[in-house]
Structures are given as structure tokens and as C-alpha cells.
Amino acid sequence: MNSAQETDDVNALISNTPEHSLQRKAAIAWGKGTDHAGKVRVIPLQEFDMNKTIFSTLKGFLPRMVIKAKIANQVFWDEKAAHTIDSAYRNDVEREVIPPVDTALIEFMLKECDFSMEHADGTFLEHLMFCYDYCAIHFPDYSPKVLLLHSILGTATNTFAMEAKKIPALRELLTPFEALHVEAFPSIFRLLYDLKLLKALRANSHRLSDLESISFHRVIDNELMSLDAEDLWVQLNYQLIHFVDFLPVANWWTHSADPLLQFFEDLSSFLTVTDKRMAKVEFDMPRSKQQDIGETRTVGGKISVAIPSILKKVLAAKSVREFSEEIGHSLDFELAWKQTS
Fold first, then answer.
1. In the Cβ-directed half-sphere of 200, how many Cα atoms lie within 13 Å?
2. Strands 224-228 and 211-217
């Protein structure tokens, strides 16, 4: 492939990426996750192949049923709500300057990586572009490239867009800060899933100012790596933004057992209580029992909703441990503290 053809392919990839969904537009425009109950109708998809998504490697009837109930849906928006979101998004994009995606990175992703798997909502590139745009506007002090590339070294379900041997070539396209956080992202994501990281940080909340670093293992090859304390807080804010794209579009009360919604709420609460929130990610979880509005569920969806939240959380943690075991990845981590006399 000649350089002119490569440039055309890169430009085509960028220009042909669909515009953000209304849910993503609302998140970017308002800097928050929103329960759109009453503004949407959610209908199960009649034909849905989970084997074409990043969840193709998920094992077990119950975990697959839960994920299918979460993602195999079509959303229809109220016309007035859609207009309100579109207007807010256009105004936000006009007011903010989102840096153009580095064409060298897109070329690397096109030539050296495989992002053919679908995400929970559309293509993987759509998910990556949402994370990039949200970060650029609502976490402007830190590079959005990290979230553009957050899963390039592995997803939580053992799909890998590139091989570990290409890491040096990837690093050449990034600053040391960007490379560090891109490499750390899949590991910290799994540690949040495994429940032990936030538990350890909460247990030591009285001395977080004495935290020096965290060491852990890189997902793609189990190499030991570390983040200093400040980079850990930055990384957790990147993780918080990433969780926004997994929130249910509506009826959060009845979806409150959703593990990803629980992880998001836990991380959001932790960053607020410890004053470590840097990114603008607002979040209002309903506190009183509410009924579904405009959402049709399959039998599997009704069963999924009935599963207790703690069980779903435990199953999610068990799942990520099994995925790590399959590839020889250790979920061990260590927090290092300043020595006090």
C-alpha cells in the first residue's frame, strides 16, 4: 500500500465514523451520565449476535444472559428530547475546541491493530471516539489520546487489538505520560472489576496523602509496571470517564444491579469523598424506587433485573479473574506508602 492510499484510508476511516448517538451526545454536552427515562423507548433487538461483540469470549449461561439483556436493545428517542440534546451538543462543540485525532495514531490503529469487534453500542471506533471527545472537553488538562487508545492493549474479555511486540512502535507515537496511562488502563480496569483496589484504597483513606505508588501487572504480557500516586488519581479519572459509556440509557433504578453501573457509582463516590475527582463527570443516581418507563424486556431481561446486585457484582469479579487466569495475568497489586518515623 503506497503512502497516498494509506492517507486516503485514514481519512476515510475518520470521515466514515458515524456521529455520536444521542446518549453519547448528551453525556458530552452536559458532562454527566443521565437517566433518560420518559424520553426514550427501549426495545429488545430481535436478531443479535453477541459473538460479533467484545463479549464473544464471555462464558456461562448466566453472565451471557445478563450482558445480552444489557446491550441487545434498540433505543427510540422522543422527538423533543432528541432536538434538545442535538442543540446542546452543537452548542458545546462550537464552544469547545476538540483537538483533531492524530492521523499517525489512526494510521497505526488501521495498519497495526484490529478493532473489527463491535462494542456494546456500535463499532469499537465509535466507543473510542466518544471517550476521546468527552475527555477533550471535560478532562482538558490531560491528553484525550489515552482514552482513544485505552483498550489497544486488551479489553476485560481478552480481546487484543495488537500484539505486545508492537508496544515500542506505539510508544514512539505518544508522550511518556500517554504511553504509561495507555499501558496501565486495562490493568486498572480489571483491578476495579476485581473489587479489591477500591476496597484497599478506602481502607487507607485516612492516609492517602502518604501513598507513593501502586505496582501491578500489565494485562497483555503480565509485565510489572507502576504508577505514582498522582498518576493513579489521574488514571482513576480516566476510568470514570470510560464508565460513562456503559451506563443504561434509562430506568437506572431498575438497572441498579448492573455491575458496570455499580462500579461507576462506587468509583464516583470514592473520588468525591477523597477529593480526587479531576474530570467533570456528574452523576445522579435515583434513591427512591421507580418503575420502568418505556422499556420492554425479554424473559432474559426480566430474569437479569431480578438477580441481586451483590450477586451480579461477585459474578463480574469472578469473570474478570477467570479471564486473567486464562492468559496468565496476575491481578496482584501493591500499594507503597511513605515511611513515617
1. 14
2. antiparallel
